[in-house]
Amino acid sequence: MKLNEIAKNLGLKCDSNIEITALNSLLDANENQLTFFENKKYLHDLAKTKAAAVFIREEFVKELPSNTIALVCEEPYLTLAYASKFFAPKIVEEEGSECVIGNNTKILPNVYLGKNSSIGSNCTIMSGVYIGDNVTIGDNVTIYANVSVYRDCKIGSDCIIHAGTVIGSDGFGFAHTKDGQYIKIYQNGNVIIGNRVEIGANTAIDRAVFKSTIIEDGVIIDNLVHIAHNCRIGHGSILVAQVGLSGSTILNEYVVMGGQSGTSGHLEIAPFTTIAARGGVTKSITTPKKQWAGFPLFEHKEWLKLQGKIARLLKK
């Protein structure tokens, strides 16, 4: 859309007719994309943005780079939510080429194949699977019954996806008005899954708000795991049953998370970290090769000592 058309639809003032192709974050947006600035702690990112325009409050306009247009509004995050609908793709494409299927691939009955999608060689796609539009699946992939792969997602080679899993569902993103109404932020990114990944039954991996939720090569995910929007799961990591990761969590390589453990959003976990079952990570872990447990989180040895002391107190 033209920038002045977007502004008009949102009740804002702007004369520029530059073409806007997408929404993006402050640091990732380019000269044809639109972003927003809400939180003061990202002020240093605002000065570095290359976005064509920014939803921003009047008090911060002076901090913008000279070539970035200010779209002045009272609530930038809420305004972004309204704007996100303009860039949401169609739920189902009506036009496009039929799905391309590789050699020796078996497609069982009652499978839906979207437009402009492709499936590699030697794959098995079982009954009840939904594969949306613009999906790419590599070679030697097994997808069990009733898996849903939403539009625009990518799956590498040598992967196994167990029954009932959903890849690319919307991330949990809402902005609220002053009277408490929640406005949906359309999740316009996708999910990218690497090679040699195994995903257990009834797992949900949400698509990104912008860009991609990424599962790197060699990751193993158990049943009933939830991975929120814009997470990145590093090479060789293991997520055991009922793990929950909040949005924009980054796991570096070979992180292990025990059953029912979880994270707050926007944090990073160092390589070769182990989080014991039911551990709650609320801050970034920067030192690699350590074991952690409990909530609030302790180093595992200290947590065991604490449990011992509590047990002795209870005996008295």
From TrEMBL:
<protein>
    <recommendedName>
        <fullName>UDP-3-O-acylglucosamine N-acyltransferase</fullName>
        <ecNumber>2.3.1.191</ecNumber>
    </recommendedName>
</protein>
<dbReference type="GO" id="GO:0103118">
    <property type="term" value="F:UDP-3-O-[(3R)-3-hydroxyacyl]-glucosamine N-acyltransferase activity"/>
</dbReference>
<dbReference type="Pfam" id="PF00132">
    <property type="entry name" value="Hexapep"/>
</dbReference>
<comment type="function">
    <text>Catalyzes the N-acylation of UDP-3-O-acylglucosamine using 3-hydroxyacyl-ACP as the acyl donor. Is involved in the biosynthesis of lipid A, a phosphorylated glycolipid that anchors the lipopolysaccharide to the outer membrane of the cell.</text>
</comment>
<dbReference type="GO" id="GO:0016020">
    <property type="term" value="C:membrane"/>
</dbReference>
<dbReference type="GO" id="GO:0016410">
    <property type="term" value="F:N-acyltransferase activity"/>
</dbReference>
<dbReference type="InterPro" id="IPR011004">
    <property type="entry name" value="Trimer_LpxA-like_sf"/>
</dbReference>
<dbReference type="GO" id="GO:0009245">
    <property type="term" value="P:lipid A biosynthetic process"/>
</dbReference>
<dbReference type="InterPro" id="IPR001451">
    <property type="entry name" value="Hexapep"/>
</dbReference>
<comment type="pathway">
    <text>Bacterial outer membrane biogenesis; LPS lipid A biosynthesis.</text>
</comment>
<keyword id="KW-0012">Acyltransferase</keyword>
<keyword id="KW-0443">Lipid metabolism</keyword>
<keyword id="KW-0808">Transferase</keyword>
<feature type="active site" description="Proton acceptor">
    <location>
        <position position="229"/>
    </location>
</feature>
<comment type="subunit">
    <text>Homotrimer.</text>
</comment>
<dbReference type="Pfam" id="PF04613">
    <property type="entry name" value="LpxD"/>
</dbReference>
<comment type="similarity">
    <text>Belongs to the transferase hexapeptide repeat family. LpxD subfamily.</text>
</comment>
<keyword id="KW-0444">Lipid biosynthesis</keyword>
<feature type="domain" description="UDP-3-O-[3-hydroxymyristoyl] glucosamine N-acyltransferase non-repeat region">
    <location>
        <begin position="17"/>
        <end position="85"/>
    </location>
</feature>
<dbReference type="InterPro" id="IPR020573">
    <property type="entry name" value="UDP_GlcNAc_AcTrfase_non-rep"/>
</dbReference>
<keyword id="KW-0441">Lipid A biosynthesis</keyword>
<keyword id="KW-0677">Repeat</keyword>
<dbReference type="InterPro" id="IPR007691">
    <property type="entry name" value="LpxD"/>
</dbReference>
